[in-house]
Structures are given as structure tokens and as C-alpha cells.
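Sanity check. The docking grid for D-gluconic acid depends on where the pocket ends up, so I'm generating a full predicted complex first rather than guessing from homology. Inputs follow.
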Amino acid sequence: MPKITAARVIVTSPGRNFVTLKIETSDGVHGVGDATLNGRELAVASYLTDHVIPCLIGRDAHQIEDIWQYLYKGAYWRRGPVTMAAIAAVDMALWDIKAKIAGLPLYQLLGGACRTGVMVYGHANGATIEETLENAAVYASQGYKAIRLQSGVPGLNGVYGVSKDKFFYEPADSHLPTESLWSTEKYLRSAPGLFEAARDKLGWDLHLLHDVHHRLTPIEAGRLGKDLEPYRPFWMEDAVPAENQASFRIIRQHTTTPLAVGEIFNSIWDCKQLIEEQLIDYIRATVVHAGGITHLRKIASFADLHHVRTGCHGATDLSPICMAAALHFDLSIPNFGVQEYMRHTEATDAVFPHAYSFADGMLHPGEAIGLGVDIDEAQAAKHPYKRAYLPIARREDGSMHDW
Ligand code: GCO
Ligand code: MG
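Predicted complex below; grid placement will be based on this.
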């Protein structure tokens, strides 16, 4: 049996912070897992180094399910983003090892390919509607079949989803949280115009998506969903903060716009009611933040029973390791919907050489054995950790709003 002989955490910041777990085995095979938790990276690094790695040494690397249960049940303190990102990193690395030993790309171990590629959506954004649509046209010309549209709101000094750099959107941009202004009234006035203009300019063949980033109440979300209906959006994402799952009933009562939620979910318990009551259409939980491939498969299987498809989070704060894991997963499940794909910078790609590739609006994990991604430790060492936070949002009266 391949025994776990060593494991270590590598923190690197090629433009943004990433936390990686590398597990080595007695067979000489190693595996990698993403453990990045944007803005709280070192908490997961410590959880792994101080509390998980000592318990892994000597274990049979093939026992993926048992190790998952051991780390989840054994901690006593279940769930939460730090714990679940740490467990996810172990899980990814062990699947990587198992597939490498089998000599197969991981998706073959997950049941094989259900599709020829994974449809992805890119991010078009701009300070104005015109700028957003120009940007969207560039994505369309690159072959994207699905595009997320975010635009500045007149009267607000910078809103969620609108970045300085058009192609490398990176919200965690400062050593202390920056502050942006929010007005629900102004946003609700401008958002439908973006979609109306988008259909005029881009036509009806593209899937158009929008992220509300937890900014609305259920009844406000119902109204926005209704206002967007004529433009047939692919989805409206994170319409409200989702701690209260029952609140989605109100949104559902008012609109047929498809709903997506879950990029910050950590386990099936965060979406059990949402899925069971068919209150959503897409579940956005990811490999890294929802307990790894082992747990995400459970969520996806449960979702499949309730007509819910997947739409995994894929922002740049998820490392190429998570992206590779997501692609193997996406390729192998029956109820895949779409995969978010924000390109990483060249510096990040140099730290994480990978086999996945983009063509015709689709990603494919490639045929390399394992996850098909690795960490170049010499490259990683060139980029020391740099504290960085996501911004916060305040309303016009100075009170805190959801981000
Ligand atoms: C998305 C997300 C991101 C998050 C980021 C936070 O839909 O891609 O909302 O933009 O803000 O991943 O860590
Ligand atoms: Mg989002």
C-alpha cells in the first residue's frame, strides 16, 4: 500500500495568495490539493500543518473515504470554511495519488467522461454598460458560449464585479479591506438595462449570467428576477445571503429566472433544503470549499435527484489545482450545468503547470494521469505571501452591507 510519508503546505503569492497541500507516499508518487480560502489563507495553512498533517503520516493513501470521515468526524468540530478547505486539500491530493498510481486521468476513476468538454463562462465587466458589452464581445469572439455580465452602477464609486483589469479580475486587492458604496435602489434601476442592451448587441445565442453577490432581500431579488425574465438570463447568482435557506421560497414565488447559489457553502447541510425543495437551479459549491471531490460528489448526486445542476465557483482565488479537480468532476457527473472560468495570470500558471486547456468555449482536463496539475516549488518560492483582503460594502448612510 502507498503509505503517506510526508505532507507539507506551500503558500505562494504569484499576484494573489494560494495555499497548496503536497502529500508524498512510499511509492514515490505525490499528490497536490488546493486549500486556498481567500483573505483567510493562513488559517487553513495552520489547520493543515498543526492539526491535520500529523494525523496523516503512516496512513494508507488509498483510503480516501476513510480519511475523509476520519478528518470530518474525528475533529468533533464539523463544517466551516477552514475545516472543509483543509479536508478538501487532503481529498484532492489523495485522488491525485490514486489516479496517478492507476495510470489514469482522474475523471476515468470517477466513472469516465459524460461529455466531450466542460462549458465555461467568462467574466465581462466594465464601468458602463457599453464597456461591459465591448468586453463581452471580446469573450464571444474567443469562443465563449456563456458570459457573466457585471457593470458599474451610476452614482456608485465601484461595485462588485467591476475590476481595474478587464481580463484578470481580482477582488482581494489590498492589505486592509477597501470600502465601496452600495445602494440597492440604484442597482435595481440599472441592472435590467444591462441585459436589455446585451440582448440588443450580443443577440440570443449566448448564455448570459449575472452575479448579485448577496446584495438583495428575497422580495427585491424576486423583483430583479422578474425584470430580467424578458432577456432570458442563464442564471441570477447569489441573489440573497443564503444562511436562511427558506428565504429562497419567496424568490421562487415571484420569478422564473433560474437561481444559482453556493460558492461560499461548505457542506451538503448548507444546501439540503434549497435542493430538496427545488428552490434553486444551480449549485455553486466547489471542490476546495466544500470538502473535496468526495463530498462534492455527494452534493451533486443529491442535486441530481431534484433537477438541480452544478455551476461550480471558479474565480481566480481557486488555484489551478482546484480548477483541474473541478474539470475532472464536471466531466464525469450527469447533472453538470456550467463551470465558472476566470483565467489565471501567467505568473500563476507558471507556478501551477497544468494539462487542462480551453477551446470553443469549453475546458477539458486533458489526458495526463492524476489531476494533471502540479506545483513548481522553485517558482512558488519566488512569490512570498502577501496579506490581502476582499473589499467591504457600505450603504449610503454608512452602515455595513453584505458583500
Ligand atoms: C464569483 C465570485 C467571486 C468572489 C471571490 C471571493 O462569482 O466568481 O463571486 O468573484 O467574489 O471568489 O473570494
Ligand atoms: Mg459569485
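Relevant for the grid: Residues 4-105 form a domain with the Enolase-like; domain 1 fold (CATH 3.30.390.10).
Also worth noting: Residues 211, 213, 237-238, 263 surround magnesium ion (ligand 2) (CB under 6 Å).
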